[in-house]
Design goal:
Layout (H helix, E strand, L loop, with lengths): L5 H18 L4 E11 L4 E10 L6 E8 L1 H8 L10 E10 L5 H13 L4 E7 L9 E8 L12 H18 L2
Helix pairs in contact: 3-4
Length: about 170
Amino acid sequence: MFHPTVFENVKVALENELYDLDNLDRKIDVTGRRDLLDMAVLSRELSLSCRLADGGTTTAELLLSSSLKELSDEILEIPGAASTCRLTLRFHLETDGTAGTCETVERCFKGIWGNPLTLVQTISTVYGSQESNVRHLAELDFGRGIGEEQMEDLPELLDHIVLTLRELDRLLK
């Protein structure tokens, strides 16, 4: 029997909380799940996607990742190294590309998540496409690792994600 790493423990806790919001509470629908192991660089990545169960159009993606360095620091019990992995939140929106959308999204995030906030927004469209939809990616990085000590914060984190989905769907209609 092997000892699970911080990544596995956080992954299981995150999946449990997210699937409870889907199956028990019916607040969200889980729309995607990827669990990847990159053997070339010994990294792990879990991606879980969801949207509001009542027909929302914005998709939230929770990306949990762990690198070889984080794994080796944990296994070798390197003094002073924290046993953590990274959590990034991505919100995929479709907008009409009107001026002010990025500012509206930024105000929404600051109102829900507070400051300081590292929010990166990427806008893209297909050149020559007749559709007017613009792909809008809002990525929130916490700038620090997440470990077993933060697992009790996961329900609050997911509440913030649901609130963000609601607010973005409302603002961008």
